[in-house]
Amino acid sequence: MLWLAGVMGLMAVSAVTFVEIETPPDDDVPEGDTPRGPNTVGDILSGSDGGETVQGGTGDDQLGGYGGNDLLR
Fold it and tell me: What is the spatial distance between Cα 49 and Cα 40, in angstroms, rounded to a whole number?
């Protein structure tokens, strides 16, 4: 049993020497998402437990009336 554990340990150590452990250069990392323009950016608006009016703006807004008697505009 100890012999098997020793052999497996040697295999793990030798595998590390063959595997290249490096982080990729910065130019290989993909860019993040960027907004496409002022018309595509929107807000996420949500109502509370009470009744209220939730009104969006000129962008692509997401309105959610989660509780109470909310009026969504």
Answer: 29
pLDDT bucket at 73, cuts 50 / 70 / 90: confident
Helix (H, G, I), strand (E, B) or coil at 47: coil
Give the residue extent of every domain in the chain: 2-32+42-72
Q: Which residues of 30-63 are buried (b: 16+ CB within 10 A; e: fewer)?
A: eeeeeeeeeeeeeeeeebeeeeeebeeeeeeeeb
How would you class 65 by CB atoms within 10 Å of its CB: exposed for 0-12, middle for 13-18, buried for 19 or more?
middle
Q: Which letter does DSSP use for residue 19 in this model?
A: S
